[in-house]
Recover the amino acids of this structure.
């Protein structure tokens, strides 16, 4: 039973990190939505380049 407190603290720390990551992702999603909503219509090429960026491809790869 003596180990339950350290394990519990570690579990809470991990939950906090998961929550922080979720909040960051939600903030990025909101920012992207705001940018897309305020942008003029995109060409198919522009949409493809943005999709590559969002999937982790470099901007130079799409140029």
């Amino acid at each position: 039973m003596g180990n339950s407190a350290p394990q519990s603290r570690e579990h809470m720390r991990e939950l906090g990190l998961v929550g922080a990551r979720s909040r960051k992702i939600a903030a990025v999603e909101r920012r992207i939505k705001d940018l897309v909503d305020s942008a003029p219509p995109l060409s198919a090429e522009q949409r493809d380049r943005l999709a590559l960026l969002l999937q982790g491809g470099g901007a130079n790869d799409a140029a």
